[in-house]
Amino acid sequence: QSFVMVDKVRVEGTVLPGYESVRSLFEEKFRLGCEENSQLCAYVDGVKVVDLWGKIDQTSSFDADSLVTVFSSTKSVTAILMAMAKDRGWLDYSDKIIKHWPEFGQKGKDKITISDLMRHEAGMANLETPLEISDTLAENIKKNVTGDKLAQMSPSWPQSGRRAYHAFSRGWIANEIFRRADPQGRTLGQFLNSEISTKLKADVFIGCSKDNFFPCREISLSYALKESIKKSLGQRSGVDLTFGELASVMISSIGMMRALKPNFRESSSLLDLCSANVRLTECPSVNGNCSARGLATLASAMANRGEHGGVRIISESGWEAMHADPVRGNLFLDVDFPFTQGGVAKFGKEDSRDGYYGWFGYGGSAFQWHPELKIGFAYTCTLLFPMSLTCKKSTEFQEEISRCARRLKH
Questions:
Q1: N or C terminus: fewer CB in 10 A for the chain?
Q2: What letters, b where the CB count within 10 A reaches 16 and e where it falls short, cover 225-236?
């Protein structure tokens, strides 16, 4: 382990030879002011090649194993858990949800399939009635408190197409399917803990009260505006949007946010997912508590078709099924990605993350894998840039790691 001070910022960790440029980029992000507490970890061919973390506050206990809320990066964790259930013969993506959960078929939901849900096409993006936070505690999920409320709601699809971002609801519905399909009746969070976190020794949790946790906050609007002007002038910037792009996103987001209904009755901010009471719940789309080391370990397993460090979590055929049949569709505000039947995005040549699968999280986190280059990638941060709808805070790291991997392979 080594560390370096970057303008009074402590950056620690190691990179293998050939990946020094990744460390330089990580340090630069702190100098630009767009990092506070951050972790970056990547495996290539099952070997950890990048393991970095940094912090602004030198008295802070933030380290490589600190847990951070990773918001929608959790969705890809849930997709893996559902793929493991399919691999074990508990369910199939083509199953109608009512095969496992008959009550869900109320009010016109009887034809919705699991693949519809995983592609955000289940018509449940905007819940009719918000849930109580306590509804989503594991013990109450198993009492069917959440399931009963979801089953009674009516579906609603967009005027054009069937896809709409199921920001919270995809995970809650998946949990109801999963616990009914699992012979042991476990929730997604319970299964994750026993079958992945423990076996892979990976700090990846859904429903968590562990210490060494650091909450998130959003960057200030003044910083975002200042940095977007720098971006417009072609200077190195702490944000990935020009001033014009930032203004456009902010204007477009106003209408979208007005149209959204709250998912929790007692909560109006996504930052509430970092609160102690919500951390305890299972929101398998949004409240993963993870370290980059933990997520990168899991991503390495996916990059290597289901196996990492001699531990296989899913068969190759199960891996193939999860990654099959990517279908393009508009999630929101012209954010358009192909989603596989297993519920992960496939990034193509039009995106700087070409070759990666997975997803990202509100404000910046990323949990993705590159099967061709066998890269397992994870990035976590406590300082969020919410204006970037496609969460490009991590993409420069991904691009640089991919460049290094390609160069070393040749």
A1: C
A2: eebbebbeeeee
